[in-house]
Amino acid sequence: MSGIDYLVDTNMLIYIIKGNPKVEYFAKSEILAISYITEMEVLGKYQISEPEKQTIAEVFDYCYVLEMDAQIKQYAINIKR
Predict the structure, then answer these.
(1) From CA 42, how far away is CA 16, in angstroms rounded?
(2) pLDDT in tens, 27-53
(3) Contact predicate 23/15, CB 8 Å
(4) Distances (CA, A) of 24 to 12, 17, 49, 66, 77
């Protein structure tokens, strides 16, 4: 994961997409990482418009999506225990 500046959650990504000035510093990052869950939450918005999809796609171009795999799933289960 070399080159990733920050791992951001759904709320932070929404703030970045909406251009919230409080997160402007993070929006200027070269590479942001998001989880596949964040990707699903943002794209799964009810009645998402085409312009919103386009804006999200542009932001996702700067994101590395952390996909779920068996090793990550087991690690999360162990942490939760």
Answers:
(1) 12
(2) 888 889 999 999 999 998 889 999 999
(3) yes
(4) 11, 10, 24, 23, 34
